[in-house]
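Notes from the 1:1 (GR / supervisor)

We went over the backlog. Supervisor wanted to see one worked example end to end before approving the batch request, so GR pasted a single chain during the call. The sequence is below; no edits were made to it. Supervisor asked that the structure be written out right there so they could see what the output format looks like.
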Amino acid sequence: MTRSAGQGAVAVTGLGMVTAAGNDTKAAWHEITSATTPSGVHRPEVLRDLPCDFMYTVRSLDAEGALGRTAQHMDRFAQLAVIAAREAVADAGLDPRTWHGARVAVLVGTAHGGLNFYDEQQAVLTERGARRVLPKVAPLSVNNAAASNICRDLNARGPSLAVSTACASGTNAIGTAMDLLRAGRCDIAVAGGAEALRSRLMFASTCRMRAMSTRTEDPAAACRPFDADRDGFVVGEGAGLLVLERAEHARARGAAVRAWLAGYGASNDAFSSVAPDEEGEGIELALRAALADADVGHGDIGHINAHGTSTLINDLVESAALHRVFGDSPLVTSTKAMTGHALGASGGIEAALTVLTLQHQLIPPTVNLRRQDPRVPVEVVAGAARPARLDCAATSSLGFGGHNAVLVLARA
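Structure output shown during the call:
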């Protein structure tokens, strides 16, 4: 079924992405749907000698060329966010010079914010003393830096929020934006997530947690969601932002609607600060809440862009919950093998990819999936992108602290 704007759905009119798979939406979609191996995996110097010394990085991005001198006053995660937001707004056919900025909201999810800059200045304090520390640690490292920089760059003066629910941050930001639009608090929302984590401390700690892959001999094949031989996730950096509009606003200006955001569900496991509830009750609650909010049945969902991190427990818990809610019918994929796990940005990136899946009626493959874990009870798309007739799709996110978030999107 195709959702109409009169049923509580909001219009998705613009997409912007900066990822390890491509520096804009078109490039990322092409690589994610056509490449057979990721090209964005690198070993940054800052991770040298760590057990997990590789990650997915955004390549050949001239942030200062794109943003000018203002780039010097942003941590990398905020730079990526502003670049993605500009693309999304242009894609929506909107002009920030003429829009009613007080009716434009900005919500950006991030797990770690400007932790890189914080780490650098902590090292300066330790090695060179307090007089050498730069005075801009607070504005560059806080989690709201991406949202505030987007607001200044785009003259957006409506509600502005930083959402931080670990790896569910981007999805929760989009869902919260939907709530604001439905409540009439704004006409337009720029929402999603941004992350650019290169902290030695965080990498070292997460390695000790045994959550990250240590497949150092073949890092491009390390992220393998739902594969029987997976051994952990691989961090990625990036940003994914959507332009959302009230249906009436989009209709009045004759906007081209890419898809409808029809439903949102969120929950918490109330179980652990790190591990998901092994029964999967929390993510199941969010899945069912999103379906109810969208007023669709489980049989209406033809595709799920899963969280699919490539960790041992998460893939089992999530896939079991998906099977309980949806049965055997939806085709599942995880795009993290191409983008890496972009943490708080992953929900924004994956929501954008779900919109493109509906538009192109093409499901991206789960790259690096060579032997599906027999304990994963859903059909995972692997090998090559698969054409499919899709009216509705969902995307799910799970985060440390038990956070779960799900979006339901419908074909325009």
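Supervisor's comment: Residues 1-6 have pLDDT under 50 and may be disordered.
Batch request approved.
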